[in-house]
Amino acid sequence: xxxxxxxxxxxxxxxxxxxxxxxxxxxxxxxxxxxxxxxxxxxxxxxxxxxxxxxxxxxxxxxxxxxxxxxxxxxxxxxxxxxxxxxxxxxxxxxxxxxxxxxxxxxxxxxxxxxxxxxxxxxxxxxxxxxxxxxxxxxxxxxxxxxxxxxxxxxxxxxxxxxxxxxxxxxxxxxxxxxxxxxxxxxxxxxxxxxxxxxxxxxxxxxxxxxxxxxxxxxxxxxxxxxxxxxxxxxxxxxxxxxxxxxxxxxxxxxxxxxxxxxxxxxxxxxxxxxxxxxxxxxxxxxxxxxxxxxxxxxxxxxxxxxxxxxxxxxxxxxxxxxxxxxxxxxxxxxxxxxxxxxxxxxxxxxxxxxxxxxxxxxxxxxxxxxxxxxxxxxxxxxxxxxxxxxxxxxxxxxxxxxxxxxxxxxxxxxxxxxxxxxxxxxxxxxxxxxxxxxxxxxxxxxxxxxxxxxxxxxxxxxxxxx
Length: 467
Prior knowledge:
alpha+beta, Chloramphenicol Acetyltransferase, 6-stranded mixed beta sheet
């Protein structure tokens, strides 16, 4: 049995996401990318595009292989019974259906679990929206791709013109899968685990020798660097007992979706007027809205504990930058009480820059490996101590098409994964499309939350006019 047949074992962050999602329903880990189209795409052409996508992204043809012992991450190898039609579906909404009906269907799709013996993705075309519009929903397990990787996958699926491009590169041939026995999986896992132990030992030895060498040439600098790394790892792995919000205390296994749309140029102009980044303005808008929601309910939070993905793509010093999930998660308290959007921008800028520079961010995968020795209930408890997750993903700046239909909106709908609220923004064709998911126990009135978040983004977009 070849190594290609037994596939590769999930490692680091990908493996941790898979394990916690399987072990606790409140940690469900799905990403739904929802493209709103100006018309119904050609179904035959769309199905062909999806087939082509799976050839360029072979992980979409891979199913998990589980070890007999259980104390190891699953392996992913080509499914010998891969069937595109199992993953692709199409239906029409009832007559007079509206946007809320679409979001309810998106919620149901997100909350429905995958078949964990098949490739972990689904694609759904929903027709019958007002004005002849349709929606294409691509659902992925978070262990397959983060937000930026989802955009990369979408760019392989979508086209830059309404017409078929005859010059597109031909996809590779379909890979062949084989049945894999539990003995083959056991042997492959044993070999991988031994390699990891040897690699870890070499890494420790190399680090130790490097420390000794550094200590002999510049003891003070080497010593301070070692202390800094230990301190950084301690800060990154600290387990908190509860959220900082006095209001967002409960967590459940379901969540509700909402969407917002704003002109991207207004957000960018506002950030530039303050000497800040788009992400700073985005986080300020979210924090302003969250504080307004607290005030609405007669509460207040001095700070909120925020999860922010830190992209490692392009970081030559980190091998995880080539992974499906090339991110580390920074988790920190962000002051919100009594701060205007300009001050919130400054705080976001300062805190994200501080965490981006943390040595522990470059150790995300090794730290995730250690999580295998921590019971899933403890990991889930730690995740539920977060109040808000924010993520900002740049998308294509020009219009793109899917099987002859133009994409007019792109909403990221992401599971809360332990936090009370997840707010993700994707920029596309001059617009900022914002997807919001709120835990149904933590947020008692989703409509009020959306009103407050809308007000937060509005406050940011008009900021330059108020200076």
